[in-house]
């Protein structure tokens, strides 16, 4: 990728592919299995699916902000976000599937509206206060879809993430996590050629491996032995 427009087109295409795979993989999940624990603490698979759907709606609101210039919060409040996830977690598999599918469609429509308004460079604000150009919303959404697909624990693993997707998500995750005080200084060197640094002061630790393995380790979804140079360092999850 040589410029922002290339990256935007690529990440939008990858979001579509990742969403289709997610929805396709969840077809085989029956109602009792949706109530079983996911890999995220205290969340069932139904919680994860509902979060993904509400995240799509939240990002759709951010596309409205970028398109119109009128501020739209991603979520009404932290409490409302939690209540919506809790309220939706116990639904049937069919209801969850429909929600995943239709919320993703609404977000796709929001992205298309930004094309028409030529508004991708306008600034919006994620939950937590991070401000960014709207053109970064697709990679933020790609990260949500890919990582939470793993969290559902339905057969999709970090190692299944293709190199192109893993590169984008690794770079974005390093950017998001690098501002946390608890992160050590890291130099991540992927076998694909992607290099990204994060963390605070001190001597850097260089960690190498495939982009998917580095992503899994960086986000707490893989153990240190899946990469090279991590030693026994376990990082906080994303």
From TrEMBL:
It comes from the Bacteria. Transmembrane segments: none annotated. Residues 19-152 form the Mycothiol-dependent maleylpyruvate isomerase metal-binding domain. GO terms for molecular function: metal ion binding. Pfam families: MDMPI_N. This is Mycothiol-dependent maleylpyruvate isomerase metal-binding domain-containing protein.
């Amino acid at each position: 990728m040589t410029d922002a427009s290339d990256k935007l087109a690529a990440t939008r295409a990858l979001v579509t592919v990742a969403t289709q795979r997610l929805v396709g993989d969840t077809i085989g999940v029956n109602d009792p299995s949706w109530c079983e624990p996911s890999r995220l603490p205290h969340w069932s698979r139904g919680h994860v699916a509902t979060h993904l759907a509400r995240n799509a709606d939240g990002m759709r609101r951010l596309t409205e902000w970028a398109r119109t210039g009128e501020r739209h919060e991603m979520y009404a409040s932290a409490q409302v976000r939690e209540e919506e996830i809790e309220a939706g977690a116990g639904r049937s598999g069919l209801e969850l599937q429909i929600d995943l599918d239709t919320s993703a469609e609404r977000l796709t429509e929001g992205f298309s509206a930004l094309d028409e308004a030529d508004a991708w460079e306008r600034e919006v604000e994620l939950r937590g206060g991070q401000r960014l150009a709207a053109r970064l919303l697709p990679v933020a959404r790609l990260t949500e879809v890919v990582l939470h697909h793993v969290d559902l624990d339905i057969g999709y693993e970090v190692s299944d993430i293709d190199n192109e997707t893993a590169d984008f998500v690794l770079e974005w995750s390093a950017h998001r996590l690098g501002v946390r005080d608890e992160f050590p200084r890291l130099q991540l060197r992927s076998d694909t050629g992607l290099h990204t640094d994060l963390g605070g002061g001190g001597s850097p630790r260089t960690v190498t491996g495939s982009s998917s393995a580095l992503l899994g380790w960086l986000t707490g979804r893989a153990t240190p032995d899946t990469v090279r140079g991590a030693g026994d360092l376990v990082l906080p999850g994303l």
